[in-house]
Amino acid sequence: MSEEFENDGPYQDAQSAEELERYVMGSTFPKTPAEWWACREIDRLRARIAELEAALVDVTAHLVAAVSLLERGGKKAAPSNKMFDQMIVDYKNCIERSRAALNGEKV
């Protein structure tokens, strides 16, 4: 553990992030009001991340479908060829960023 956690009560025995999480999140471990707040906040943030990941999966799937339709529909989908080509490039870049984010890669 880092020096800041040394001699920090029961946390000093935690040898890994998983053990520390077990201490902090466990319902049998006595907590200060700040630690109870942190537990609730961690749970809230984890739920929010799950919601955002689900939304990103949905948006990515719909964007992939839109690109496929645009590519097959020809350049009549935009006012000009240049605009159409740029739309496809932008959409594909967005798809790559969202896929990277879903795979846990730095975006």
Q: How would you characterize this protein structure?
A:
- With 107 residues, this protein is mostly helical.
- The protein has a domain at 49-107.
- It is built from three helices and no strands.
- The longest helix is centred in the middle third of the chain and has 41 residues, at 33-73.
- The mean pLDDT is 81.
Sequence stretches where pLDDT stays below 50 over 5 or more residues: none
Q: What is the number of E strands?
A: 0
Biggest sheet layout:
none
Distance between the termini: 29 Å
Order of helices and strands: HHH
Estimate the helix proportion, in percent.
55-70%
Q: Tell me, what's the shape?
A: rod-shaped
> Beta-strand percentage?
under 5%
What is the tally of helical segments?
Answer: 3
- Global mean pLDDT: 81
Radius of gyration: 23 Å
- Class from helix and strand fractions: mainly alpha
